Amino acid sequence: MAKKVALAYSGGLDTSVAIEWIKEATGMEVFAVSIDVGQQGESLEVIRERALKCGASDAYIVDAREEFAREYCTLAIKANAMYEGEYPLVSAISRPLITKHLVKAARQFNCDTLAHGCTGKGNDQVRFEVSIQSLAPELKCLSPIRDLSMTRDKEIAFARKKSLPIEVKAENPFSIDQNLWGRTIEAGVLEDIWKEPISEIYNYTQDPNFDQSVDEVTITFEKGLPIALDGERLDPLTLISKLNELAGKHGVGRVDMIESRLVGIKSREIYEVPAAITLIKAHQELERVTLEREQARFKRTVEQKWGELVYDGRWYSPLKESLDLFIEDTQKYVTGDIRMQLNSGRAVPVGRKSEHGLYDYNLATYEEGDTFDQLSARGFIQIYGLQDKQAAARDIRYGKINRLD
Ligand code: ARG
What does pTM read for this prediction? Predict the structure, then answer.
């Protein structure tokens, strides 16, 4: 019987505490698995060192940035994914990818158990464990922080007692998760939902009022996929990174919201999502030009469901995979350019161009050369309104409704 655990290791407080705890509590060997999804900050080498110093038997590191951009962020763009209308699913789309690599590492080290350092109050525990059930149901799962019910303060005390080589400021314990798709900040002083967020928490974006200048960027899409900025062809990872910088400079993509977690808690979340907001706004605009009306309407329903499934940890669910196929099918004409203006916290589409668009100047124009047959509108309206006309006449017959009073 293998006595080995593969732990999703970020290098932060929770997972550093977890290494020692698992060893003490179970006697199992712990293997730390760190996955780069564009979280920046420390190098994976530094994180590996810390894992070893915190007691891991070995460490497994993967640079998954390119994969994250290509297979996860781009799906979120095509789906215009915004949970509760505001949150582009930064953490939610990274968990299924992290889980995939965690399972691969477990196979390599011959582990029979996976572990994560999530608390018992958030969505991430659900995302990890539900993904594991889909990818490797034979593996057991351990959640040391949750199962010990450690509070943040207890974790800090434990880390100090064990002299774990991690820095923690006890007075300002924000919980931060960041990757290529954005940055999430919660807890600490943010839990007072009446108080405005303090400026120190931000890192991907500048104060939107700091700089009033205007930048324009043209984003080219091919079948829903962003492929170029200002005519320069870029792979998804480079394109998203560049846009994070450019839009972040203008304070684009700061979100301060009260969010409904899957586990029933309302929480205050701050997000910084400069590239995500800019790309989704541009993509939505191109869809306005290229998608037929009913298809566009139906897609909005699909998008909402897609976002909810992904938020709720169901990345590998049959419904999410079926919705992916629908979304992909809608993208076949979503090709063209959107010119975005970036200024004082806003990303606004100001120009659109598409050879596959359904916008027809000759139909739309009020100038000479209009090809729309205005006379046929008359008959259309008579038949279109017939159903309401019949029903209204019946109301009058029965004296039930007088809509004029
Ligand atoms: N509320 C967001 C979500 O559930 C962000 C979670 C961030 N995770 C974290 N461990 N700080 O997707």
Answer: 0.94
